[in-house]
Amino acid sequence: MARGTTVACMAALALQFGLQPLLNRAFAGDVRSRSLLVVVCEGAKLALAAGTLALKSRVVPMAPWSLAESVRLSGLPAVTYAVQNVLIQLSMQHLSPLEFNLINQTKLLWTAVFVYLLLHKPFSVQQCGAMVMLVVASVLLSGGNADDADVDAALTMDRFYYGYVPVVGASVLSGVGAALTQQSLQTHGRDASVVTMELCVYGALFLVANLVASPGAVVDLTGWTPYTLIPVVTNAMGGLLVGTVTQLAGGIMKSYALIGGILLTGIVEAALSDAAVLSPRVYIATALVIASMYIYSMYPYVPKTKAKTA
Q1: Longest dimension (CA), the chain
Q2: Is residue 44 classed as helix, strand or coil in its secondary structure?
Q3: Mind telling me which residue stretches traverse the membrane in this protein (predicted)?
Q4: How many CB atoms are closer than 10 A to CB 169?
Q5: Mean confidence (pLDDT) of the chain
Q6: Ramachandran region, residue 122 (left: φ > 0; alpha: ψ -120 to 50; beta: rest)
Q7: Cα separation of 36 and 85, whole Å?
């Protein structure tokens, strides 16, 4: 039963990860206020995290909660995640779903950098090589497809500045937020569901404050339809699935699920497209990202044991 649940959760995570960019483009592509979209997404995540915490508290008593500690440990990563999510929503509309999912994996590189700087966690030689592969894949994708020579130059520049640059910026912010969150969970021993709720609340408050401070209407519902809630809900479920798969099967199996999601993105994108949009450099980048995720997961850093003295 437990094995079946694990497999089902991994399949659900691969499905959500692979289809999320496609759902965003299809049902939220015309939404004008990206900040408002992220606020609604954070609300959905908050509801799921609250439900999870309520179920958990029935089994295990929760530790005392402090507002001062909460703001100190979750305030900054919440802001980084909020800005990251706005950049992601922008990037999804200017890159193909497969390109977005591939470049977005560079967050692994930035997470490693900031985890090393903040937590002093070393990495194996193989993991360092895997991160270099991610950089190469990102550089390959940043230049666009080889078949884009006849595409309008302005459109190509928009794709770079509003697609590639935001997703790379989001990856950097993801690394900062992930390292700070890991520090909060591991060093300070805080509950994951509580931290998730704090990140949702503080991130939403930050974005709402920016909306209020911006000129014009505070609530801009241009582009919203009932179907816009589909990517909102699936995005919230993705966060819950990541934590569930990591808990049930470990980080390595989570990586396999994400690899399956990348392959699914490529298959669905190719099936839905009227033309062959996948250039050779996209195939190469896909292979590099998949190989990088596999190597990074399979060859973790192993501390050298000191020889025992007689």
Answers
A1: 76
A2: helix
A3: 128-146, 161-180, 192-212, 224-244, 256-276, 282-302
A4: 16
A5: 82
A6: beta
A7: 11
